[in-house]
Design a protein that fits this description.
Blueprint: H1 3-12, E1 17-20, E2 26-29, H2 42-47, E3 52-55, E4 58-66, E5 69-76, H3 82-115, H4 120-130, E6 138-145, H5 153-160, E7 168-171, E8 177-182, H6 187-202, E9 206-210, H7 220-237, E10 243-245, H8 251-256, H9 260-270, H10 273-276, H11 281-292, H12 297-304, H13 308-322, H14 329-347
Parallel strand pairs: 9-10
Antiparallel strand pairs: 1-2, 1-5, 3-4, 4-5, 6-8, 6-9, 7-8
Helix pairs in contact: 9-14, 11-12, 12-13
Length: about 350
């Protein structure tokens, strides 16, 4: 994370500088070959009580970026300009370390919300620090790759969403990468673009699921759980899709919670498999178009480029075979549900 700071300071300074961690490791140095090495005479540095100390051509000072964590910054001794440059490095380092620690803590807080049982009181108390949005309707998006990529998904997502206010990205312990952001009208278009970018950079297949919309932080865990469930449902119910949306799953969510045996029994009690198998593909497509056009015969005929009488004949033939009357709302809903169940069972491998 310190690479960005090093590059920023290198542009402004023409001297040796760096940061030493509280255990003596050089965390950052303009001479990158020194990073990761132990700082010589660190024991002497740690015991020093003065504001500044000179050691082997370097001048060092102590900074405290966050509570209970201290660092040392150093620059080479440049004579009269040393103090100015040392103070500049200390200021930049303190701001950068504090900012990144806050970001890390915020991500940890969100991980706890999504994966643990934090009480509403605990969430509200800790959110006074982070001031996460609790008024807007939010979406939780779960990003999954076909296999674990070499490059972190979260790094690409942070670049893609860095201009979006109130967007938070969290990498969970099970390798799910979650994006929490205010609900927006173009969410699906945004996700399509994100998936394309991820697949292009990572060279792996990527899918996304949108969990149940929520407002309050204490609702986020259940929204995340619904996004996990949505992957399971979508893989069975929406073949070929890269985005699954819990909020648009409709009856599929219901089917997922009912046993296969009960679903099969429902079909047999309503319209036997023997009868269903006699319905040809042309009739099924006709019924689907009829449902999509709100049981409007004229509109369905126009969309299918059929004469109205031809469509009426097909519907009457269907009604006679099944014993239903799909021109009536109740029968139409019943057969539509049967078609959805059949699709769901077929994807489960049940004939």
């Amino acid at each position: 994370m310190l690479k960005e700071l090093r590059e920023q300071l290198n542009e402004q300074l023409g001297c040796l500088f760096g940061i030493v961690g509280m255990k003596g490791t050089i965390l950052l140095c303009s001479d990158t070959s020194q990073e990761g090495k132990e700082f010589v005479r660190f024991d002497e540095l740690a015991k020093n009580t003065k504001e500044k100390i000179a050691i082997e051509g370097l001048v060092l000072t102590k900074i405290k970026a966050v509570k209970n964590v201290q660092y040392f910054v150093f620059v080479e001794d440049l004579g009269m300009n040393t103090d100015v440059i040392l103070n500049l490095v200390a200021l930049y380092a303190k701001d950068y370390l504090r900012s990144n620690t806050e970001k890390t803590d915020k991500e940890f807080f969100l991980k706890q919300i999504l994966q643990e049982d934090l009480s509403k009181e605990e969430i509200d108390k800790r959110n006074k620090i982070f001031k996460l949005n609790v008024t807007d309707k939010k979406a939780i998006i779960n990003i999954r790759t076909q296999k674990i990529p070499e490059y972190p998904v979260s790094d690409i997502l942070k670049n893609l969403f860095h201009d979006l206010k109130d967007a938070n990205i969290v990498t969970l312990d099970n390798n799910d990468t979650v994006v929490i952001l205010p609900l927006r009208d173009d969410l699906n278009n945004v996700l399509q673009s994100v998936i394309s970018t991820l697949e292009e950079h990572l060279m792996v297949s990527v899918k996304a699921s949108i969990g149940k919309y929520f407002y309050l932080l204490e609702e986020a865990k259940y929204a995340y759980i619904s996004s996990v469930k949505t992957f399971d449902i979508g893989s069975l119910y929406k073949e070929g899709c890269s985005i699954y949306d819990y909020n648009n799953m409709g009856t599929a969510r219901l089917f997922h919670d009912i046993s296969v045996e009960r679903l099969e029994s429902f079909i047999e009690e309503t319209i036997t498999s023997e009868v269903y198998d006699q319905i040809d593909d042309e009739t099924i497509k006709t019924m689907q178009a009829f449902f999509e056009n709100n049981l409007n015969i004229s509109e369905t005929a126009r969309k299918m480029y059929l004469h109205r009488n031809t469509l009426v004949y097909r519907i009457e033939k269907f009604n006679k075979l099944t014993g239903l009357d799909v021109t009536k709302f109740e029968s139409a809903v019943l057969f539509y549900t049967i078609c959805q169940i059949k699709c769901y069972l077929r994807n489960l491998g049940r004939n």
